[in-house]
Amino acid sequence: MQNIGPFKLYTKKPTAVKYGKVYTMEVKLPVLYSKKRMVRVYVPNTVKEEKKYPILVMADGQNAVDRYTSAFGDWEMDYHQHKLIKSKCPPFIIVGIDCPYNSSHRALEYSFPFMKMDDKEEGCELNKLNLKFESHLLYKYIAEELLPLVREYFPVTDDPRLVCAAGSSMGGIFSTSLLCEYPDTFGFGLIFSPGYFLYPKKDFKNYILNHIEVLRGHKLFFYSGNTGFEAKFLERTIDGYNLFKSNGFDEHHIHLLVDEEAEHNEASWSKHFEEAIKFWFGKK
Question: Can you say how many angstroms the Cα of residue 22 is from the centroid of all Cα atoms in its chain?
Answer without folding.
Answer: 18
